Structures are given as structure tokens and as C-alpha cells.
Amino acid sequence: MIVLIAQHFAQEGNEERVAELLKQASDYCNSDQEPGCLTYIVNRSTENPRHFLIYEQYVDQDALTAHAETDMFKNVILGTEVPLLESRNRSFWAVVE
After folding, report:
1. pLDDT at position 97, please?
2. Is residue 72 within 8 Å of 31, Cβ to Cβ?
3. 41-89: pLDDT as tens digits
4. How far apart are CA 51 and CA 13, in angstroms?
5. What Å distances lie between residue 59 and 7, 34, 82, 89, 91, CA to CA?
6. In terms of CB atoms within 10 Å, which end of the chain has fewer, N or C?
């Protein structure tokens, strides 16, 4: 299992649009349209409404690679959401079993 933690910091004034786009991505990833994604949870800081943390779990590396190739990821995240960000940080993890 692959875990991806992404932190997105919206540019000032773009935080509500970023929230909408991340919700759209979450709805897609948690549907049957992306079977290799086990969970995709978008969190928003209670201290800074411009700070989002996305917790993602994929069955394996192939599923994560497939996620990055979806039209949703390319259009909604890379094409629309990322340009609205001040910064974006990602880290990869493994579940301790």
C-alpha cells in the first residue's frame, strides 16, 4: 500500500475555489471510477483556511501511477487547482503493518 500526503497552500483569495476543486477530486477518487484508490480525504486547517492536507491511500505503485494519468488529475488538479496555489508539498509513506 502507498500513502501520499499532500499539503496545498492556496493563494490568498483562492481558498474557496481550491476547496471546491479538491472536493471534486475527492468525489472522483472515492468513486468506482478509480478502483486502485482506497481513500482520498481532503482536510482543511482550522487555523489557516488556505492550508489543505490531502491523505491518499493506493493499493500499490501502479494504482498511484494510474491516478496521475487520469483526466481528472490532469485537468482538475494540475490544470486548474495547482495554478491557484502558493505552494504544494508531497510526501510518500508506507502503512506499518
Report:
1. 87
2. no
3. 999 999 999 999 999 999 999 999 999 999 999 999 999 999 999 999 9
4. 12
5. 21, 11, 25, 22, 16
6. C
* Cα–Cα nearest to 43, from 53, 35, 33: 53
Report the sign of the C-alpha dihedral through residues 43, 31, 29, 65, in that order. Answer: positive
Residue written as grid cell 495547482:
82
> Which residue type sits at 9?
F
Count CB atoms within 10 A of the CB of residue 27: 13
Task: Please name the residues in contact with 71: beta carbons below 8 A apart, sequence gap of 6 or more.
Answer: none
Cell of 22: 479538491
